[in-house]
């Protein structure tokens, strides 16, 4: 019973990204704002890829550099090996395996939200793709 209550609270205030809870963008900036959408796009890319390139984000997202930096630093760090940004905490498959229903619901929500942010995510993806050797 306590687990269900805690999971309900977590889901109300945070989103699951790679097995880790991250504060919802709605608690950081007004829903529908450019900042809100860009933050969610960054989280969606991290949820999908695990890593991201700041330079591609800077080129793809309509945010000033200092806003982008502030967003990234709120939940990510630079991975020294890849020189890409990743979540502060490593991917945690344990949570997703233990609480499969919650993880599946969060995945469905991310899929829906990613669809809403398709243009921002595709702008990032096109910059990553353009840099890859043919």
Keywords:
mainly alpha, 7 helices, 4 strands, globular
Give your account of this protein's structure.
The protein is mainly α. Helix 3 crosses helix 7 (118-131). The model has no long low-confidence stretch (mean pLDDT 93). It has helices at residues 2-13, 34-49, 54-60, 65-75, 93-98, 100-116, 118-131, and strands at residues 14-17, 20-23, 76-79, 84-87. It has a two-stranded antiparallel sheet. Strands 3-4 form a two-stranded antiparallel ribbon. The chain contains seven helices and four strands. Strand 3 and strand 4 form a beta hairpin. It is globular and about 50 Å long.
What's the quick description here?
This protein is mainly alpha-helical and 134 residues long. The chain has helices spanning 2-13, 34-49, 54-60, 65-75, 93-98, 100-116, 118-131; strands spanning 14-17, 20-23, 76-79, 84-87.
Total number of helices: 7
Mean pLDDT: 93
Major sheet: size, sense and barrel closure? 2 strands, antiparallel
Q: What are the low-pLDDT stretches, counting only 5+ consecutive residues below 50?
A: none
Instruction: Give the % helix.
Output: 55-70%
Q: What's the overall geometry?
A: globular
Topology:
Layout: H1 2-13, E1 14-17, E2 20-23, H2 34-49, H3 54-60, H4 65-75, E3 76-79, E4 84-87, H5 93-98, H6 100-116, H7 118-131
Antiparallel strand pairs: 1-2, 3-4
């Amino acid at each position: 019973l306590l687990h269900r209550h805690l999971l309900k609270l977590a889901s109300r205030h945070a989103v699951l990204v790679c097995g880790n809870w991250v504060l919802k963008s709605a608690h950081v900036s007004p829903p529908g704002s450019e900042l809100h959408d860009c933050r969610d796009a960054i989280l969606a890319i991290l949820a999908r890829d695990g890593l991201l390139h700041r330079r591609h984000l800077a080129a793809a997202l309509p945010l000033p550099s200092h806003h982008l930096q502030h967003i990234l630093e709120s939940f990510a760090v630079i991975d020294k090996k890849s020189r890409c940004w990743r979540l502060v905490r490593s991917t945690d498959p344990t949570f997703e395996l233990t609480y499969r229903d919650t993880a599946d619901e969060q995945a469905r929500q991310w899929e829906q939200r990613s669809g809403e942010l398709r243009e921002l995510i595709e702008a990032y993806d096109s910059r990553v793709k353009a840099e890859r050797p043919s």
